[in-house]
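A reminder before we start the practical. When you read a complex entry, don't treat the lines as separate problems. The point of joint prediction is that each chain is placed relative to the others, so the output describes one connected object in space. Small molecules and nucleic acid strands, if listed, are placed in the same frame. In the example below there are two entries. Take a minute to note the order of the lines before looking further.
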Amino acid sequence: MCQYWWSFTLCTVVTFQFAFTFLFQQQERGAEAVSHNQNQTHQRWCLSEFHKLSRKIQGGIPPLVDHAQSELTVVYNTCLCSAALSQLSEAELLLSQATERVIQMTGDDPISSDPPAFWRTLLKSVGNTTFNSSVQHLLCLQWALWLAKCQLKTIQEFQDELFSLSETLSTELGDDKRSSERGKSSDIPLLVMDPRRLIELLQTCTFIAQGAERLSEGQSSEALSGLQKASSLPAPRMLLAYTHHLSGCCLASMSCPQMALQCYRKAVETDSRCVCALYQSLLIYRELGNTQAEIQALRLLHSSLLLPSATEPPLAGAALLSPSVLLCSQSLNRLLSVPSALSVLHSLAQKCVLYGRVSEGVEYYLDLLAALHSDDQHGVHEDPPLPRLPELYLEAGAALLTARRPADCMALCDEVVGTTLELLPEKLVLEEPEETSEIETGAVGAEGEDRMRMLLWTGAAYLLQGHCHTHLRDWKQAVTHYTRCINLLVKVHFKKKGDADMVGKQGTNLCILQRLKGLSLAGRGISFSQTDQLREALRDLHLSLQAAPDCVGAGLWCGEVLWRLGRRQEAAACWEKTWSFTAQSSVEGLRLYLQEPQTGPLLDSTELQHRIQELGPTLSA
Amino acid sequence: ILILFAVLQFPGPVSDLVESHDKQVLFAACMSGVYCVIQSSLADASSSPSELKISSEFLLVPEEGVLSLLLVGSVLLTLSQRDTSWILTLYNCPKQSASSSCESLTSFSLPLVSSVVQDDDEGKTGVRRRPVLICVCSGDATPLPSSSTSSSEVTLTDRHIRLEPVLFKLLFGVDAALAKSPVILCGLPDGCLCFLPVRLAGSRPRVLHNLEQPVVFVGASAVMKMGLGHAQCLVAVGELGRVVLIKTDKGGPEGGGNTAGFTERCVPGPVVCGCVDKNCLYYSTGSDLLRLDLNEETSSKTDAARQSPTSLSVCRVVALAEPAHNPAGEVELLGLSVRGQIQRITLPLEKEDTGLSKMPSTQVGRSVRDLLSAIGDVCDRASMLKTGIKSKNQILKHLNQVLNISFLLVAGTNSEENLIRCHATTKWSRLLQKDSLNLTCVLDNSSPYVLEHGWTLSVTVFPLSYPPSAGGESPSTNFSFPFHSLPAGESLEVSLPLAAAGVASFPMTVSCSLIFSLSSLLGEEAANFKGLQCSCISLPLNTLTVDWLHALQVSSPIDAQKMATSQCNNTATDTIQTFLNSRRIKCSGRGEGGGENASKPKREQFSASVRVLSELVRDMLVVKSSDEDPQGPKLALQNVHVSLLEWLLSEGFGGVRTGHQGDKMSRSVIHARGPNGHTVKLTAKESVGKEESLTTVEVQVESSSIAAVCGLHHAMLRRVQRAASTKSIRSLGLRRALQRAEVTTKHLFLFSFIYLPAVSSK
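Here is the predicted structure of the whole assembly.
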């Protein structure tokens, strides 16, 4: 019997050593940028070997105190590997089997099922045995499992004992060291991960998870204090950055934007891959209205997202257990989420064009389109979704026009028109739906909805082409394209559903429709005015103002045409009215291609003021 | 010729195989993962097929349970089934061979619709159905850059389809079209037809259609032969035989432009595998290979469901490769049989007759119309010929009748008992104060034949003697009466004016004949021929004689008296008559020696008498009466002279009767007016001679006109003669006949005797 056991132990240890060395070899190779995928397969292989081993032990050896330490070590290793591969339930089963055997070894009565109480009594009962430390290791694993399963309440209850573990273990480690120094041939099996590292990791992660949970529950200050504690603990870079980031989030929610920005900066400084901090700081800049800083942040965010390692969860040094396994609560994920590189690029481009960096913005738009056409776009899910592709084309077109590249703009518009033209309906009834969630998915909605969109896109493309021709001072072509746009728009019949001020709601199809109508009519009116067809010009401009009263160009040109027709008082009134509108109108929410063109013939407001003043005496006289 | 090149042995059953675009790399999906074999590594095999055991060193993707593969550019797609979902994973395929493993790009999970999958026998066999994966590109998109060095070599294999741009946009959205992204079309065993644009940011798999039965095949067909190599139609086939055709519908509902049209058809299943070429879907049911013409569907949607596929009589085919056309134009299919044999199936060219059945419906309609009108023409012609024959038959029958009648008449001209004959009645009528004698002529048809259309009754009237003023020619009058039809046993009555009072001279001969015109026989066409118009057959009937007795206007007794008085008193009114009379008196007076005074108003009377033996008269009358009236003999016997007179006036002599038969003139003296206007007095009396047997009846004619006296006398003589000659032979015995001969001579004697004194004097 004794002989048998010895050979068995030898055999297991040999097997174990083999598995162990293999694993470590792998980890070394993991440092040499072996793909995540491959790493996992090797972990999987190790795990299966550990499993075989633990099954052999549990099936072949009676629960005896003599072998407890090696047995529990095997369990620790197996469980850790399982957890690292996110096989949590398997790990938990293994753990509960192991604790049962421990109870059998100590010969105690079965204890309560409440986990903290269970562990307390267990620890007490094994207090003076040789395998005390091994049981404590198992407790660490239990902690990890609780964390991974987001059982923060349990951890909370047991927090003091857990946190004290580090101290007890560090003293034991000293003993271990001594013993290992003493006898190199010790046959106590090695551990795949140092329990002290594990506890450090667990502590930080617990703070982070708790902080995120509290933050989401609105307890920002409490969360902050916990996170402050965590930031002082020794932890991997990434986790440290997370603590800074979360502190920033807390401060932001406590409306301390500047302090929050400081925290975000610290987070990025700590770990350059902490893109979520960049993103959050950009949100704060946006809130503060600091567009230049926002653009800067966007640019930074985009370039860091393009870094190869940015999106993949990085391996925390040589640690077997990745923090991502432990940090999986939803509230935390929400705080750490970052939009995709493409949507960042889109916002960057949009912001640049809107805030005067047109040429830069154009370049970003072209980058975006190129990226969308590149081979390595493989349906990565965007959250928030990008605008539909034709809209991006149109925005890029508008940007190009603003950058005075009408030929490129026309090419893009041609592409949109070419794609949609064959699918356009002859007639369309627009029923403004109640608040639906179709924007959220960005998917093709109802067929009619999609058709409506297509019609609007085509109309916008014609409008942009009209603008291009206006820019080139080719009035005839401009009129042609504006007319095409108008002809398309009048195919839509609006069916009212009660709510009268639907037009006011930005982003609705009706709003876009009216805006397009206003702009195209204004454009045509201006073109007519350039070819001295003043009567037609006046008619179109009036219609334009009816469709979109806040259209500045239409208002000013309407006055100009009236002036040329000799109706000076009316002209003056028209100008005054337009200026009064200009103050309150906001075009922020509108897409680029629905903005008024900056490239057409312009009227100098001061000159107009001058005229009104000249008119003044005659008016009074 | 198919050459077996190499044998590869994989560690488990292979569920799908895919070749790279340059045909250098082979991907195989096993239960344990996707393996990758470079074909150049097999090239070292010499003549015999090399055997290669595929071990884990060839493992490319260690994903378990991959069911289907698809290679799009450098992206390898795998589709596998987890418990309740389909997992579609995209792997970035390494550019250089299979040395390193693939990198997973993204993964999508599609919920599994269990209702269809559960009820099949998948669990029993343990073999999972393979989902269908194909790649669809828009027709105007540039070809995919492949992993191979030159992209120009890229050929579209059976799993890559170029679709017509409009249909592509309709099905997969504008965004996919703008991004020029290929679309993965995925037919799942749960019946879902899903699609996923590959190179579109933020795209997710979406359901295109649900077949509600395991999808067996998805392909594309150029149903309308106009595309530039773009498929016009997507075809999806379900296991139970549902075929879905997806095409562009021009001008959708409410004028809404183009829409994607989904047409469902059903073929008898189960469908094991299928493939499609330009117009046809070929599919195997395991027991037969069938061809379904997709083109015919366009003709009419209603009978599309009933459209049945044609059998090609190839059984046990479990897999089919894309059809190819060999130089001869025949379709060649490569099929794999259940037993693992690769078969090349060559379909015969469609023959002309099958081509005929494939004519477009309009042409079919036209040809049917042509046939119908041809049938109509034939029918018309047949009926025309039939009527022609019928009319000819009619004409022949008619002609037969005519000939019969002709023979009858020719044979019967001499005999009295002609079956077709005329008899006539004279009648005086007064029209516009002018008396005229009308002859009513009756044609009796007692023959068994019908006198049909085309016959004309011709009546010619001419006087027996005529005055020399007529120029030696008989002043005959011809009347013709065409009639339509005279059936056997009926008679035709025609009336004709014989003479006005005082104009004609009697006796007159009325000669009847029947004329048949040939032109009437032949109808209207013949009427155009001038020569035919006068060609006719004239067949004489009988000849009637109208004599003085027929032409008498017998006055009633009162009239006679009146007339007698008026003739005396009415001298002043009729001076011309008086003048004429006086002239005649003078003449006669001179003729008789001129002893008479011219101023004598009393007109000179001429008289003549006929004496006939009473016995003879009696015989005549008895014979006559016994024919007609049983009471006649008695009456006749009592007053022989009266009867004789009556008989003379009423007897239908020569087929002619007088119109005043009705009133019995039981008188011995009859006053009448002759046709020339002169009054005539007929007196009959019986005189007993010396011998009993020689009792005679004397009929005396008295008139102032000698023409009347002569005419009447002649008429009476003729009648008596005829009656005596015909009736005596029949009624009397041989002994009497001898005696009568004597009497007859006596008669003759008597006649001459009587006549002469009558002319000489009174």
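Discuss with your neighbour: The interface with chain B takes residues 35, 37-38, 41, 340, 342, 371-382, 385-386, 388-390, 393, 415-416, 419-420, 422-428, 442-444, 447, 450-451, 454, 457 of chain A (CB under 8 Å). What might explain this?
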